[in-house]
Amino acid sequence: MKQIVVISTGGTIASRWQGSGFAAEARGGDVLATAVVPAGLSVRVVDLMSVNSARLTTAQQLTLLRTVREVLADPAVDGIVVTHGTDTLEESAFLLDLHHDDPRPVVLTGAQRPFGAADGDGPRNLHDALLTAASVRDLGVVVVFDGQVHAARGTVKVRTLAADAFADPSGSPVAEMGADGVRVLRRPGRPAPLPLPPAATPLPRVDIVMHHCDADPLFFETAVKAGAQGIVLVATGAGNATPEISSAVREAVARGVLVAVTTRVPAGPVAEIYTHGGAVDLAASGAVLTGTLRAGQARIAVLAAILSATDPAERADALRHALGGAVPAATGARA
């Protein structure tokens, strides 16, 4: 029997009607009871928390990270499934992946429809997540939803309500569910894992600021004044803003703030193409371009970099490391 541990954190998959809306309430064992457990698996449930994921904090995400590490300290465990709310699942998945140093899989899943719904997608997603956790290795942390298996890096919520909620707009799934089990399509590129942050490390403020027509540096500068140690600038196009914002970035970096640049465009990388406040100037001002990572995961990369070092230059290096990846292995293998 393969041993899989389900870590329950709440979300829609565990949500019941509260009189005016849904909120996470069901325990992990109740959620597991809705799904068909694949043959040959022994499943243990850890009720870690029960929260709508829009309310999730960095402290809770780090608790999840440490819990995953503690569970994997048992060599008898073959894999982990984390049930999670979809609002911030992409952020937790990427944080786990940045620190994941084990060939055994960690699989995140959830639901778009609440616990007990007649047309609920949670039971199928949980079944597929359990099967994936028992079948694959060396894929890092993955997201299983609507019959697809996505690498944590780059995968975001792309639909607010539909069952096929997750995708990598700049990439493709790493595996898929088939009649004969889990079929691996490719191996995702992943940098060497970061070490776990010390438990007593103070949690930094990391903010996200979006650029738009008529935007000035006000909110960026406000984040700096509020004590942000990191800021993600969500730029336009391939990573462009204005000369005034570029100047604000330069001043923030000079004060030791770690600044990253992503884009509000759904797919494609940010790139140094334009000046007059564009990515050319933002990079020259000390900002780090985040490739194809979008805002939520770019913030997680900045957070992880800040937690890994105290020196601003070392933090920037750690961020660049978190953004990198190894060359993917050959595709087409079967799990």
From TrEMBL:
One Pfam family assigned to this protein is Asparaginase
Coiled-coil region list = none
The residue ranges of the Asparaginase/glutaminase C-terminal domain are: 205-315
Could you name the active-site residues?
12, 86
What are the EC numbers? 3.5.1.1
Catalytic activity, as annotated = L-asparagine + H2O = L-aspartate + NH4(+)
Write down the SUPFAM superfamilies for this protein, in alphabetical order. Glutaminase/Asparaginase
Alphabetical list of InterPro entries matching this protein: AsnASE_II, Asp/glu_Ase-like_sf, Asparaginase/glutaminase-like, Asparaginase/glutaminase_AS1, Asparaginase/glutaminase_AS2, Asparaginase_C, L-asparaginase_C, L-asparaginase_N
Q: Name one GO molecular function term.
A: asparaginase activity
Keywords of this protein's UniProt record, alphabetized? Hydrolase
L-asparaginase N-terminal domain: which residues? 4-187
The cross-references to PROSITE patterns, in alphabetical order and at most eight, read:
ASN_GLN_ASE_1, ASN_GLN_ASE_2, ASN_GLN_ASE_3
In terms of PANTHER family, this protein maps to: 60 KDA LYSOPHOSPHOLIPASE, L-ASPARAGINASE
The family classification in the record reads:
Belongs to the asparaginase 1 family.
Q: What is this protein called?
A: asparaginase
